[in-house]
Amino acid sequence: MTPxxxxxxxxxxxKVAVVGVALSDCGRVDEATxxxxxxxxxxxxxxxxxxxxxxxxxxxxxxxxxLPPVEVAEYLGLRPTWVDSTAVGGSTWEVMTAHAVDAIxxxxxxxxxxxxxxxxxxDIKAGRRTGNxxxxxxxxxxxxxxxxxxxxxxxxxAARRHMIEFGTTIEQLAEVAVQARANAALNPDAMFRTPIxxxxxxxxxxxxxxxxxLHCCIRSDGGAAVLLAAEEYVRDCRTxxxxxxxxxxxxxxxxxxxxxxxxxxxxxxxxxLAFERAGVGPAExxxxxxxxxxxxxxxxxLEDLGFCAKGEGGAFVEKGRLRVEGGELxxxxxxxxxxxxxxxxxxxxxxxxxxxxxxxxAGARQVRGRDGEVARLGVASGxxxxxxxxxxxxxxx
Length: 397
Fold this sequence. Notes:
Order of helices and strands: EHEHEHEHHHHEEEEHEHHHHEE
Protein name: Acetyl-CoA acetyltransferase
Domain Thiolase C-terminal: 248-397
Helix content: 25-40%
Number of strands: 11
Organism: Streptomyces pseudovenezuelae
Shape: globular
InterPro entries: Thiolase, Thiolase-like, Thiolase_C_2
């Protein structure tokens, strides 16, 4: 196998596969540190691939430490020759995947480990931090924060715009949460599995109009890791490869006043690029893993990825289309951030679930293609900030 630090292959000639994925302990994890969750997820992903950490020459991480990739790499005992610390919120990991694929394809790295971990829930329970209402009050944000424009309020205002322009109803948005919970019921590792109804969602405490509590993601602890490698590594791995077919990334705005249209997310660009580069289209996807910090995110991302026309997301999510059982397009098959786990920048969890689906390792929540066989194509699309950034990855086996 190629030693760490060795450049092989001709630029643009190498295919890239996901060869290892894993989650750390998730949900309620009161005793671990974020570093420990990073390490647990990383060890499990390497074991999943059947590779040793000495094979890892590329490393990507964000969100922990003063020098995020340096501190975490040191903690994991890694000395990478290619690093990435891109931090664009929840879409960070899909964007990092795009960067890692480019690096591997060009021969600048051979095996790149992406890893994340957070004790967001445990820290609040222990009083080590409080719930943050905003990302700060510097730069462009100084013109919004003084008026009480919280993070959740930004999403709520965008959802209300969609409702006004297209007639989207609060019941349709609630259906996203109901179907996410139905999928979570099939996932033994999901944090919340008890079925809910549209009335349960509507009757909850108001958080930011029109969002009640169940329109919003849960807060959990947890970590995830994904190992990408050049095609020549595949023969040495214990798992079947899941190929990265196409990626796309896009940033839209920082201040809400610079967002041209509250009903269009940056996934409209990242998705188009990813599908074009993969040479496939939305209609060919067997499932979609979408960032769902709020129900509206799922709905508008479905539109922007091309699964339905702009303004038709509300009608699309009705009648159980997002469910694993009987759904036309299973979405967030593990239960998503609304029910399974959401420790912060959740984009890496989307990739883990997508790979497990394509390997046929999802158990009771396994998606089948139109031919009855295990899913062959899927898409993971992360969103960052308040629809500020997006990264989309198309995967296939």
